[in-house]
Design a protein that fits this description.
The chain is mostly helical. Helices cover 69% and strands 0% of the residues. The longest helix is centred in the first third of the chain and has 23 residues, at 17-39.
Length: 180
């Protein structure tokens, strides 16, 4: 009787291995390793785990988006477990490989505009204020005035093509048309 209980337990574990191992491989170990990476001085492990969490987020978004399709694939949980193991195990460096060969080229080559509206934080209240003008001045210093003017021109062209609204127009009279 004791043998059949152990056999039943082993059968239950074997049939639900993906459900048991999935959270350990995809969440518990990466959480532990991420905390260790934060506490270490090496930026390499920080990059490994930050890359992993980016990819994990993308997998989760994929699963949420295509949930109805995925439920028809009986092997999905096993494929995800194997792929996650490849991403997580540091000897394989799967997360770094996927990021460097697929995610990064897609994001970097497709980025056509530069965000000059990034405003860094002030260091203290007596320092020079960091605002849009400071960011614009920094961009002009790094790329030149012509590049800045070209970016503004392209931005205006894009705005007029995609929207009937502009941010500022000298010829517009601001009259309230909906009076009560």
């Amino acid at each position: 009787m004791g043998g059949s209980g152990a056999a039943s337990f082993l059968k239950l574990v074997a049939t639900n291995f993906d459900l048991l191992a999935g959270p350990v491989v995809s969440l518990l170990y990466p959480l532990y390793a991420s905390i260790r990476a934060i506490e270490s001085k090496s930026p390499i492990d920080d990059q490994q785990w930050l890359t992993y969490w980016v990819l994990y987020s993308m997998i989760t978004l994929f699963e949420l988006t295509f949930a109805k399709l995925i439920e028809w694939l009986p092997f999905w949980s096993y494929a995800k477990l194997i792929f996650t193991c490849w991403l997580v195990i540091p000897q394989f460096s799967g997360a770094a490989y996927v990021y460097e060969h697929y995610v990064r080229p897609y994001l970097v080559t497709r980025q056509k505009s530069v965000n000059i509206w990034y405003v860094p934080r002030k260091k203290d209240m007596f320092s020079k204020p960091d605002d849009v003008l400071t960011a614009a001045e920094k961009y002009i210093q790094e790329h030149g005035a012509e590049a800045f003017e070209d970016m503004i021109r392209k931005s205006r062209e894009t705005t007029t093509k995609t929207s009937n609204y502009t941010f500022f127009n000298d010829n517009y009279s601001y009259v309230d048309e909906h009076r009560y």
